[in-house]
Design brief:
This protein has helices at about 35-40, 65-80, 90-105, 135-140, 155-165, 165-180, 210-215, 235, 240-250; strands at about 5-10, 10-15, 20-25, 45-50, 85-90, 110-115, 195-200, 220-225. With about 260 residues, it is of the alpha/beta class. It has an eight-stranded mixed β-sheet with strand order 1-2-4-3-5-6-7-8, sandwiched between helices. Strand 1 and strand 2 (about 10-15) form a beta hairpin.
Length: about 260
């Protein structure tokens, strides 16, 4: 399905379906399309909302994990979302989801993390993209996936454009460093929401041991792995990701029954 973007209150977002809310947060190099298969699967029974996080446009001094959390807080308030909802995050979006949950434990009824930062990540394969080097960018974007072919020309072109903008690059670097410095190991025990962890067995950015650490530190976490899968399971192994998510939601949000 084609995702229809809306603009309201200064926010750019997708809002599809009716029912219990699933609020989805993309990562640093993410886009709305990262969640396309999830939206298509769950809109029959859920209201699926995806804000476009201003990772390349926010004021430089606010280009941090806490800055993005504040953006999500404002988004939730302005759109008058329900008193509680399910929060999902990939990569940096998972990190933002965790901090939001720590700040607003009563609002997050359940939490889903996939390839989340917050404990450890090896962003862009250990180095930032070289400006003007298309092959380097293509290689680094491919590093996100088990199968580099998943890194389409469109996706590589998008990242390449970012790396050739000084302003966007500065924000990207600021956010990546904030994520690496903003370690949550000492705080995760406070999150009591049931949590699903879906991880790629071949994730080299937040490797499987990171997933096991999240499982150990989050009191109500359950961990599921997908083989032949890298850092973005909802893109690379969407059928398996959706199957785990549907099972989890049936148990923690019993009023909904996705197909």
């Amino acid at each position: 399905m084609e995702l229809r973007r809306q603009q309201q209150h200064g926010f750019d977002y997708v809002d599809e379906g009716q029912g219990p809310v699933l609020l989805l947060l993309h990562g640093l190099f993410g886009a709305l399309s990262n969640w396309q298969d999830v939206v298509a699967e769950f809109v029959p029974a859920y209201r699926v909302i995806i804000p476009v996080l201003p990772v390349y446009d926010m004021p430089l001094l606010q280009a941090t994990v806490p800055g993005l959390v504040e953006y999500v807080e404002n988004f939730v308030e302005k759109l008058r979302l329900p008193a509680s909802f399910t929060l999902l995050g990939n990569s940096l979006g998972g990190h933002v989801a965790l901090v939001y949950t720590l700040r607003h434990p009563g609002r997050v009824s359940s939490l889903v993390l996939t390839g989340s930062s917050g404990l450890f990540e090896d962003g862009m394969g250990g180095s930032f993209p070289k400006r003007g080097d298309y092959n380097f960018v293509r290689e680094r974007v491919g590093y996100t996936f088990y199968d580099p072919a998943v890194a389409t020309r469109e996706l590589v072109d998008e990242v390449f454009a970012v790396t050739n903008s000084n302003a966007k690059c500065l924000r990207m670097i600021s956010l990546a460093r904030s994520a690496q410095h903003h370690n949550l190991a000492g705080d995760l025990h406070r999150i009591q929401a049931p949590t699903l962890l879906v991880w790629g067995l071949n994730d080299t950015i937040t490797p499987p041991p990171v997933a096991h650490d999240f499982e150990r530190l989050l009191p109500r976490a359950e961990l599921r792995f997908l083989d032949h899968c890298g850092h973005a399971p909802m893109m690379e192994r969407s059928a398996g990701f959706n199957r785990y998510l549907a099972d989890f939601l049936r148990r923690v949000v019993p009023v909904a029954s996705p197909a």
